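Example 3.2
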Amino acid sequence: MMASWGRLAPLIVRVINACPCLAAQLVMAPPRVIHATAAFLQARIAMGRDNDPATLAAEIAKRDPRELLAEALGGDPRLFRALDRCGSTVWLLQEYEDLAGLLRGPLSDSVLGLQRFHHATLRQLREAEEDAVLIAARHVLVHDPALVGDLRAMLALLRGLGIARDIEALPHGAGRRAIRRRIEADLARAAPPTPPFAAPSGWRHCESVHEVQAVGAALKNCVASVMFGTTYIGPFLIGRMRLLRTTDEPLGLAAVEEVGPRLWSIAETQFRHDVVVARHRRAERLRSSLAEVLNESGHALLDQHPFAAIRHLHEEPSQLGLAAAED
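Structure, written as tokens:
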């Protein structure tokens, strides 16, 4: 029994010693009574009122648990019933206050639809109350509270880029697909920072996520989808990767990654309807012309990503078909 009271256990022991009849009452009590009593005791401690065990025992024995809860957190009748879904271990006062606050807020109906309350879930839903878009998405968030943090991050990005348009008009009760469609529509308008170097001959810088996706769709690669192209789309939007496309056929896409101060490396190239020999020739021409325009801008093109050296050094000589050298 005492384990379920957590850090209130020593106080409960003193309260029961002052009024032994409470032992049976609390052992048989449903979860809502235990939680109401815990909230009451913590509120009394927080207020610095008379915490004499005999006084507390008398109040717990004589007063209706609803009264105890109302003194601690207000008299919402839904809160008392909801405490049955809080599990068998008492919560901290702040966690009870979070639940009470949610029941007073715009997400109350969604919260009451939960079968079980968890601290992390309530904390995330409290955060969702601060944003009109998240309130509109409440029916999704209440079943997947972890999505609150994901959506907050995405909203911060879209708003920071000044392109949060469709998502800001999210209708109340929207489902996952509607949320996803609006985010992807907004993201398609996103443009990267101004390129720090000119595009080499025969190539030009992609100017938006929409353009990148269109090229990706034509080449049937991962950047056609925001979901699968995050390795490229994210760095592209913050200027850590430049995505170049050919100006003529065959259509090609090159990912040029910033790997250090004014240092760049070609992460990947792809051409449509290409054979291996032609692909290598085109990649080499791109490398040569890109090195020139980077040098003109005070930048440099590296043949390898710098950290490739670390990976290489971790490989055993036997894996490379070489004789081992002395350390």
